[in-house]
Fold this sequence. Notes:
Blueprint: E1 2-6, E2 14-15, E3 18-19, H1 21-37, E4 42-45, H2 57-73, E5 79-82, H3 89-92, H4 96-100, E6 104-107, E7 117-120, E8 126-132, H5 150-162, E9 170-176, E10 178-179, E11 197-198, E12 208-212, E13 218-220, E14 224-226, E15 243-248, E16 256-261, E17 268-273, H6 275-280, E18 291-296, H7 305-312, E19 316-320, H8 343-355, H9 361-373
Helix pairs in contact: 1-2
Amino acid sequence: xxxxxxxxxxxxxxxxxxxxxxxxxxxxxxxxxxxxxxxxxxxxxxxxxxxxxxxxxxxxxxxxxxxxxxxxxxxxxxxxxxxxxxxxxxxxxxxxxxxxxxxxxxxxxxxxxxxxxxxxxxxxxxxxxxxxxxxxxxxxxxxxxxxxxxxxxxxxxxxxxxxxxxxxxxxxxxxxxxxxxxxxxxxxxxxxxxxxxxxxxxxxxxxxxxxxxxxxxxxxxxxxxxxxxxxxxxxxxxxxxxxxxxxxxxxxxxxxxxxxxxxxxxxxxxxxxxxxxxxxxxxxxxxxxxxxxxxxxxxxxxxxxxxxxxxxxxxxxxxxxxxxxxxxxxxxxxxxxxxxxxxxxxxxxxxxxxxxxxxxxxxxxxxxxxxxxxxxxxx
Length: 379
């Protein structure tokens, strides 16, 4: 059977105050066309459908319009979606009973993990698809107690699944988690104060495990893979090729995965140069409409460089301006001269690094006035 595996759409995401909804619509249009041009037996979306638990109305409408379109062009295609840690599982799956009648199966909470989606391909192959949404600590707890970490909850869920698997059928799992050994980027949400990583060996016995959560496409073991996010969602991913995975899966055999590239409407790109080169030269002309993070190679203290650069690069989202060289500044009290350890001396040192000389009298006067208002001898 052929599975099209995607995840981490993050519909409604805003990057540096810029809505990515048009970019996401552009990507989903390509995904829908791929299903027309290259038919598959199953589509799985492994979590983080939305970017937050209460998504904007426009993002909800985009998902609804897209599912309706796909059902029109691929009426028999089974679709399985699960909630990720960015989603609100209850809100995402409120209509799961109704949508299941049209072949769209949504799993938002832990209460249905042991109930598979059973499919039969056009060639007659039968498979069980086990959909495991992101499990928060306590998700699998019962009235008399239960696992209190996310890793333990996932282990309990897989245990329930193993007890109900049908021998001889192709076994597919869909899960949203952080498998040990996975490579992260800056755009995944970090969960603090709990055991969030799981051992990939937990998924032994499945013919394919479609994972979501990590935004870089990668393998975890022999049968489990992350498709990666639909688009680049941080500048740390600016060099990454994004797409979806087309996976050939057969019972008892190693899965064969091929990436299908999604072309972004505007890729993320990092550039560096002097302000003059960026404004007057042609070296960066080919990328002027991309989403940009620019690092200036020299300090620019005046003249509103962000506004000037945005006049030429309308999708400039981030500007790194090395206004102060901190390499020569003392890093601890022990490194400061003992006769220069008060706030006033520190301010003078700072101004010398900032301006390459003594601060103007009006700046020193303003600092003296502010210092006096805060207590005079504040250190």
